[in-house]
Amino acid sequence: MRFFGTAVMLFAGVLMALSRDGGGTDEIVRIEFSASGCFGVCPAYTVAFTSDGGAELVWKPLHRQILARRDSFFAEIVRENSLPESLLTSRYSLRFAGEIPPEKFRELAEIFEKDDFFLTGDYSERVTDLPGYRFTARTQKKEHSVRMYGLHPPEKMTRWREAILELMRSVRWRFEGTAEN
Fold it and tell me: Which residues contact 161 (CB under 8 A, 6 or more apart)?
């Protein structure tokens, strides 16, 4: 009889937890990607895409002057927004906004879903002087992050990174202002 009572209590707890989740969809609504700096000249930034077509980019202040000359992606952003040197040398992060077609977000989300993102753990190698990456996907019910650090990550992580970078390059980024780090 005690087992039956425990089972009923467990079932009631599950029902209560399910009722608290808001009944929202389990589709991915936001994907975020962060790149950290390294001991060299690696861009440090966070980019996020949302299911409604929103795009956000936060460019951290590490080596921005050099990247504005050497990295075609960041050089284009600087040129298109006519960013002054004073912003490139400031200690603040630079915030940008843009839009993507919602179907492009859906394609990106499908890659994450197909690769079982929410079941994937972190990847790390015993190396130094590389940028670290973090992928985060959010649904209305859950959020999961995966860290990637190393020269030979699993193929799916490389696929996520390349898909995000391709989408990043397709956005026309508008300077929105600065933010504290």
Answer: 33, 133, 135, 148
